[in-house]
């Protein structure tokens, strides 16, 4: 059983994947464990940022924070939204918070992920703690 579980949530994923990840985190948690849901907001590419108003960016961020907080409250967990590169930011956050388990959903592999890599692959390869990958 784990006492400090990090669950990265990609809100664009299928809802059943999120629910499954939350169920796994709950079932692997020790009594009194801390579960944290984390969403990483990737930077908008510089060539596109001038076409997006700050109102849209702010509303999107607020929507993400609201949805993540809702998911966390249903589970009795914490929610955190940070900016950065997904793979590296998840690992940095897990290290800073002393997470002993990361529960992460993985997309089905395809040619694009074989060439570019994926967040789950990066986390599995570089994490200093246990990682449970949901496939």
Overall spatial form: globular
Unreliable stretches (pLDDT < 50, length at least 5) are: none
| Sheet/helix structural class | alpha/beta
Number of strand segments: 5
Overview in brief:
The chain has 135 residues and is of the alpha/beta class.
What's the structural blueprint in terms of helices and strands?
Elements: E1 2-8, H1 15-28, E2 29-41, H2 46-49, H3 54-75, E3 78-83, H4 86-97, E4 101-105, H5 111-116, H6 119-126, E5 130-134
Parallel strand pairs: 1-2, 1-4, 2-3, 4-5
List keywords for this structure.
single chain; 135 residues; alpha/beta; 5-stranded parallel β-sheet; 6 helices; 27% strand
Task: Walk me through the structure.
This protein is α/β, with parallel strands linked by helices and 135 residues long. It is built from 6 helices and 5 strands. The chain has helices at residues 15-28, 46-49, 54-75, 86-97, 111-116, 119-126; strands at residues 2-8, 29-41, 78-83, 101-105, 130-134. A 5-stranded parallel β-sheet has the order 3-2-1-4-5, with helices on both faces. Helix 1 (15-28) links the parallel strand 1 (2-8) and strand 2. Helix 4 (86-97) packs parallel to helix 6 (119-126). The chain is globular, with a radius of gyration of 15 Å.
